[in-house]
Amino acid sequence: MSVLLSINHLGVALPPDADRPWALRDLSLDLRYNEIMCVVGESGSGKSMTASAIMGLLPERVQPTQGSITFEGRDLLQLTQEELRQWRGARIGMIFQDPMTALNPLHRVGDQIAEMFLTHRPKLTRQDVDARVLRLLEDVHIPDPTATVRAYPHQLSGGQRQRIGLARALAVEPKILVADEPVSALDVSVQAQVLALLTDLRQRLGLSLIFITHDLRVAAQVCDRIIVMKSGKIVEQGPTYQVYQQPQHAYTRQLLEATPGREWQVSAA
Ligand SMILES: Nc1ncnc2c1ncn2[C@@H]1O[C@H](COP(=O)(O)OP(=O)(O)OP(=O)(O)O)[C@@H](O)[C@H]1O
Ligand SMILES: [Mg+2]
């Protein structure tokens, strides 16, 4: 399968007062067309930093020091602020653990999705935008789209808010969706619905996903390939069934043993 985004030998340094000198060290990975790639690892292992580096959203004082992130023929680390603004959201969308991170509590959800079109597709008529917003709400299985466009985020459940975040992230048809712990804050039954929606959208839209989770059961449900991180480095990567059934690294075995239950075990593809 063809490679869509490629991270090569990425190093990201932390400020001198941090608990370690680097957030990421010599990180290399390929995201392929239409695949769901999971990034797992303990807290502080660098999962969110990997997402932030791709999105050009590294915190202040946290800097890439080496390597590249290649996407559509460009090194994302070399983009100017203006290029980043145009590109972010349009080519690579993002959703977060807490959908409120991306949503404004004071604005109606319909307007917040419409905003993506106003920013990235300014030539569309208002009528077109409204129709597309409704269609997106249907795509993410919001029960009553016409009523929901007028709702404020706090009037929705956590699962519905995550669907709105998803509609917003997918509005202008990005090729890649970066999802940082997108279901961790949801009840297990709602988790399953959102995971099913993500896998369905991946097929229908030809999306590739970078799916960050600390939950190996969740990863087993959705991922084609899995990347295991520890202390800012990749310790192991491979097809999900392979990593789960024949973990090569002691740390991977440790993570698997720490995950209770057996029902989540993946079967060989
Ligand atoms: N804003 C920041 N400034 C300085 N260091 C940071 C900042 N955010 C994270 N770090 C450090 O960067 C490293 C990687 O953090 P990261 O947030 O990527 O971990 P994570 O794998 O996403 O963990 P979690 O599962 O808790 O979300 C950690 O050592 C962390 O302390
Ligand atoms: Mg994180």
Descriptive overview:
This protein has 269 residues and is an alpha/beta fold. The protein has a domain of 78 residues. It is 36% helix and 25% strand. It has 10 helices and 10 strands. A 6-stranded mixed β-sheet has the order 6-7-8-3-9-10, sandwiched between helices. Strands 2-1-4-5 form a 4-stranded antiparallel β-sheet, covered by helices on one side. Helix 3 crosses helix 4 and helix 4 packs across helix 6. The longest helix has 18 residues. Bound molecules: adenosine-5'-triphosphate and magnesium ion. Adenosine-5'-triphosphate binds next to helix 1.
**Strand order in the largest sheet:** 6-7-8-3-9-10
Major sheet size, sense and barrel closure: 6 strands, mixed
Query: SSE string, helix = H, strand = E?
Result: EEEHEEHEHHHHEHEHEEHH
Q: Give the radius of gyration.
A: 19 Å
Helical/strand content category: alpha/beta
Helix content: 25-40%
Question: How would you state the average pLDDT, rounded?
Answer: 93
Tell me which oligomeric state these chains represent: single chain
Q: How much strand content do the residues show?
A: 15-25%
Distance between the termini: 16 Å
Top keywords for this entry?
269 residues; alpha/beta; six-stranded mixed sheet; 10 helices; 10 strands; 36% helix; 25% strand; binds adenosine-5'-triphosphate; binds magnesium ion
Give a topology summary.
Elements: E1 3-13, E2 22-32, E3 36-41, H1 47-55, E4 63-71, E5 74-75, H2 81-87, E6 92-95, H3 109-120, H4 126-139, H5 145-148, H6 158-170, E7 176-180, H7 188-205, E8 208-212, H8 216-222, E9 225-230, E10 233-239, H9 240-245, H10 250-257
Parallel strand pairs: 3-8, 3-9, 6-7, 7-8
Antiparallel strand pairs: 1-2, 1-4, 4-5, 9-10
Bound molecules: adenosine-5'-triphosphate and magnesium ion.
Adenosine-5'-triphosphate binds at residues 14-15, 18-20, 23, 41, 43-49, 59, 62, 214.
